[in-house]
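2024-03-11 09:14:02 INFO queue: dequeued item Hydroxysteroid (20-beta) dehydrogenase 2, len=328
2024-03-11 09:14:02 INFO validating residues
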Amino acid sequence: MNMAEAEGCCGLLYYLGGFTALYYLLKWSWGCWRGFKVYMLSEVWRTDVRKFGQWAVVTGATSGIGRAYALELARRGLDIVLISRSEEKLLQTAKEIESQYRRQTRIIQADFTGGESIYPAIAQQLKGLEIGILVNNVAMNYAEEFAHFLDVPDSEQRITQVINCNILSVTQMTRVILPHMVERGSGLIINLSSEAASKPQPMLALYSATKIFVTYFSRCLHSEYRSRGITVQCVAPFVVSTNMTNNVPVSPLVKSAESFARDALNTVGYSSFTSGCLTHALQNIALSIFFPAWFRHSDFYVRQMEKYAHSIKQKLQEKKTQAHSKEE
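2024-03-11 09:14:37 INFO prediction written
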């Protein structure tokens, strides 16, 4: 290689390096701007959710994130249809909304693990309502802690229940309500996914698989119907202190359900896919950097998850023993 060729190669590498640096700088800048807009600017200029319609329908509305969404939507001026399994808890939550926020409520008792047979009755009870918002929140895990797929208790029944609750509920509730939104040219559907869907999660195989369905379904639906005035938002939180997470204590990394629902609702109109709050978005970035996919699928990682699952199981057993002792 002569001097001219060497200089040409150096020049090419120089420009390639410059373009690469510029690409990553622009990518980083765009990410920072989006994060600022979605999680900080939205705190100041919030979307008025009343513009979507009078009523909001929330599934799994008597505990955890679902209950928090129902209360927050009522606080922001919507009437609420609460759908859940326990009539007692439904009445209690409805009473709280009516007394605290002076909003109308309706309750529908339904067990989402039961399959497709429940939806005609739900559709009948929703007739005549101007439903502006649907929150598909109801979900369940297949075990109290991380577990191998074959170690799930009552696996034959449990697998069907998880699929019915986590997947069928989202698609069927959307099928019931979306046509009326399209007819009016306005509506918001919020589907609760999970950080467990961001990457395949060993020891949460079925749960993470159902949640990636929710993510893909939501993002495709948003593309299909946004031109008709419909917003479909997918919310993928990290750990929130709820019954599903064994009410893990609230911390800088773990949000309460109430705080999370408030922050997540602020992102409506700013992003169709969100972690829900700034701390969870930062955790998502950190997880991608420090726990890449190859590491999550390594034997070492799975062994550590097995140990962690065992420790959680022991703690849960101790709690149950203590609770049983107090009752006696």
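2024-03-11 09:14:37 INFO annotate: The domain at 48-315 is CATH 3.40.50.720 (Rossmann fold).
2024-03-11 09:14:38 INFO item closed
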